[in-house]
Structure formats: C-alpha cells, structure tokens
Design goal:
Elements (H helix, E strand, L loop, with lengths): L12 H9 L7 H11 L4 E4 L6 H14 L11 E4 L3 H14 L9 E4 L6 H6 L6 E4 L1 H9 L10 E4 L2 H6 L3 H10 L5 E6 L4 H10 L4 E4 L9 E8 L5 H12 L5 E4 L3 H13 L4 E4 L5 H12 L5 E4 L1 H4 L9 E4 L6 H8 L8 E8 L4 H11 L5 E2 L20 H9 L13 H30 L4
Bound molecules: adenosine monophosphate.
Adenosine monophosphate (AMP) binds next to helix 3.
Length: 451
C-alpha cells in the first residue's frame, strides 16, 4: 500500500497543522487503520506495541472529539485514558498537550498517578478537565475525594491493557467501569493478548473494529538481535566493553532483574567512568524524572532499569537495548526489545546468555518464533567448565553454584554422572524460570480476587 497522508484521514485543520508542526507526515499503519473507525465513533481493539505510534492514533480522535464539542464551565470530562505506569501517563499527557500547543482555545489535559501527593492533582482538577490521563488507583482516589466525576466520559482508552492486568489493576478497572456511562466509545490497546486481556476486551468493547499492525517489514521496527554467551560474573565488564567499543556515541538501556541489580550494575559502570544511573520503582518520582530527563538530553549514556520501571519509556532513536538479565517471561522480552528501533529507526538488542539461562533463552526464542545465533566476544568467552561439561570435570557444579546465586548444593564432586546431572540442572532452572513467571501471574490474580 502506498503511504497515505494524514490529510486523507478527515482530521480537522487544527490537527493537521499540529501534526506538521511536529514533523509527523505519514500515518503509521496503526494510525491509518485505527483513526477512521475511531472518528466514526466505533469501538476499536488495537493490537499495538510501544513504538507503533499508538499514542498519536488515539490522541488525534480524542482531540478531534473535543474540537467538535460544546465548551462548558466547569469543563466536563470527555476523554479518559487509563495507563499502567506514571511514565506512560506523563508521555501520553505530553503527546496530547503537545498536539494542542498554541491553540487559541485548548483542551485541558490532566495527568494523574499514584506515588506522589494527591493535593496538587486535586488543585489541578479544579474547574474540571477535558481529558484525563490516569493510573487506575489514583483515579479512584480522586473520584472518592470528589475531585473528578466520570459520568460524562465519552471515550475510554485502555492503553497497554496487558500491563494494566499484569500490574494488578483488574479490580480498579472494574470499579472505574462501573462509574462510566454505559453509552461511550472504547479503545483498547495491547501488545499481547493473553486470555485475561481477551476476556476484558470482550467485556468492555461493543462490536469492535480490530486493528492489527501487519507484520510487514516496513512497519516492524528493524531490530538486530545478538545473543552473547558469557559467564554471569563477567557481564558487567562485557557490558562496559560493548559500550566502549561499539556504542560509545549511543544511549543504552539495560535491563536487570531486580532493583538491587540495577543499582549494582549502574554503580559499577559509573565507577568505570561511564555516565550511568539506575532506574527502578523505589526511587522517588523526582529522581526518576531527573534520570529520564538526563537520559533524553544525552547527559546520561546508560540507564539500568527493571522491567516495570522501564515500561513505556519513550525516547526517540534509542539504538541499543541490553538484556543484562533475561526477562522472566517471553512477553517481557517483546516489550524490552520494543524499546529500540522505534518508528522506522533501526536498533540493536543484546541478550547476555549465561550457561544457566541458556534453556530459558530457548523458551524465549520459541515464543518469539525467531532463533538468535549464539555469539561470543573475544576476551569474554564463557569458561569452558561452564559449557557442556565433559564427564569428570568436577568443577562444573561449583561454577554453576557460584553464579546461579539462589542455587544451593548444585553438585558435590565425586557423586558421578556429571553430564546427566548438569542437563537436569538446566531443565530445573528452565522449569523454575517458567514457574516463577506463572507464580507472578498467579500473584497478580490473587491480589485481585474481584476479577
Ligand atoms: P508510541 O507507539 O505511541 O509509543 O509512539 C512511538 C514513537 O513514534 C513516538 O516517539 C512518536 O512520536 C512517534 N510517532 C508517532 N506517530 C508517528 C508518525 N506518524 N510518524 C513518525 N513518528 C511517529
């Protein structure tokens, strides 16, 4: 299909001007397919990832709806966007406000989320708001404080619906839905569609138009994946080496499994002379904002983040993503590498494969339907003892034990059958990783028995 222009989408002149002022000329596939039904008032189910242009895809119809509505005082809520994280809330708010920048009469966009004091948000909602971008818990708090009424909502957007459920917002969503008028327009965006999301979509959407970004090469970000075999205790040095030799000029987003790991890796890189910082949910909102701003401004070169904290970080042209630790769930892998190669840019994703995690990475490959050749970097080859052990290599067990951390008593030299033993250890680790992912999902459900 030839590229079409935004002008072909029946958008109002104010929006077309805003788009060209922002240098956005050609709609992305999701925008091309989702905007017309949204403008026509239909419900839309969008299978779209970060980087597909989904935010602009729903921001334009929300703004067009506002442009065509009657002004009232106080302002009546028209558009409600629910998002899983504060960072995404800020980004969506910026997109909406950015497009409406400089209008003689502009909609009031309020962004609210938890983890910060509620009072300024209550003040900001005085006189009402036209569009509210919110995380679910704080939205309910504000409703309870009478700072906001939801019964005038015309359009509901659920962005990153899979993440909303993953993060345990199912019960809050139910409570919010009960406060919305039955007649309204709904848009649901999700990168993945596990059964819980399908169920929610069936429950919320009325005869939705399904929009899926086709897996055409031009719409799929151009991401080169590298799977590098390395011992666990050499990963930080390998990371430093890769950054210095291949990506000295690039910003790099690194994923680690725990808050502690993000701190440790960032600290080590920092000590080694790189501009690096940790980014996780236990940092204050102020620190997180400052870190993101410094990263955007290229004052920081490396950010080491947990999955949850990094959700929705939107930085144009982020060329390099590193899986220092592999994600627990294959779905997270998709989200992670979606941080790079956005909107037509190309990107590189590195995954560090320790001997213990080889099996888990195979699971990820299976799920993404793509095999990634294993590579080794000179000077960082995994120690031969850690690779497929020859019988009689009594140190295998010690090696695994040293790096697997939580693994205890992996191998007692002299008990024999090392090769078989080692294999089953891998199997166990793979199982443990899968189980852990399941348990996280189960915990999320348990936290929300209402749904
Ligand atoms: P999103 O999928 O909403 O996270 O957007 C990903 C990135 O694509 C953002 O940085 C947008 O500014 C950018 N973007 C959105 N729409 C377009 C477009 N039509 N052309 C070029 N870039 C876009």
């Amino acid at each position: 299909t030839p590229p079409m222009s935004f002008a072909a989408l029946a958008l109002s002149p104010a929006l077309l001007n805003a788009l060209s002022a922002h240098g956005l000329e050609t709609p992305t596939p999701i925008q091309r397919d989702a905007i017309p039904p949204m403008l026509a008032g239909r419900d839309v189910l969008a299978c779209a990832q970060t980087g597909s242009g989904k935010t602009v895809a729903y921001a334009l119809p929300l703004l067009q709806q506002w442009l065509g509505s009657q002004r009232s005082s106080p302002r009546r809520l028209q558009g409600l966007v629910l998002v899983p994280t504060r960072e995404l809330a800020d980004q969506v708010g910026e997109t909406l406000s950015g497009l409406a920048e400089g209008w003689m009469s502009a909609p009031k966009v309020a962004v609210v989320y938890g983890g910060v004091s509620i009072n300024p948000q209550m003040m900001a909602l005085r006189g009402g708001a036209d569009i509210v971008v919110a995380t679910p818990g704080r939205l309910l708090d504000l409703v309870e404080h009478n700072a906001l009424h939801l019964h005038t909502t015309q359009t509901l957007v659920l962005d990153e619906a899979d993440r909303l459920l993953d993060l345990g917002f199912a019960e809050e969503l139910q409570r919010i839905l009960a406060l919305l008028p039955a007649r309204r327009q709904n848009l649901l965006c999700s990168a993945t569609f596990p059964p819980a999301v399908d169920e929610m979509a069936a429950h919320i959407l009325h005869k939705p138009v399904r929009v899926e970004v086709p897996a055409e090469p031009e719409s799929r970000p151009d991401i080169t994946q590298h799977a590098i075999e390395v011992d666990a205790d050499r990963r930080t040095m390998l990371l430093k080496h890769l950054i210095e030799t291949r990506h000295a000029e690039d910003r790099v987003l690194v994923f680690a499994a725990t808050k502690y790991a993000t701190e440790l890796v960032a600290h080590k890189l920092h000590r080694a002379g790189l501009h690096a910082a940790a980014f996780h949910g236990e940092l204050s909102q102020g620190t997180r904002r400052a870190t993101l701003a410094a990263f955007k401004a290229s004052e920081l070169q490396v950010v080491v983040a947990t999955d949850v904290a990094a959700r929705g970080i939107d930085i144009a042209r982020l060329p390099v993503v590193v899986n220092y630790d592999l994600p627990r769930s294959p779905a997270d892998h998709v989200h992670r590498i979606g941080r790079t190669g956005r909107a037509g840019e190309s990107g590189i994703a590195y995954s560090f494969i320790t001997p213990e995690m080889e099996g888990h990475f195979r699971l990820i490959e299976k799920r993404q339907g793509q095999r990634v050749p294993r590579e080794q970097i000179e000077g960082f080859e995994p120690s031969p003892r850690a690779q497929a052990a020859a019988p009689g290599d009594a140190e295998v067990g010690e090696h695994v034990e040293a790096h697997a951390g939580e693994q205890k008593g992996v191998h007692v030299p002299g008990t024999g059958g090392i090769k078989g033993h080692r294999k089953s250890k891998k199997d166990k680790l793979r199982e443990a990783a899968a189980l852990q992912a399941e348990q996280t999902a189960a915990q999320t459900l348990r936290k929300n028995p209402g749904k």
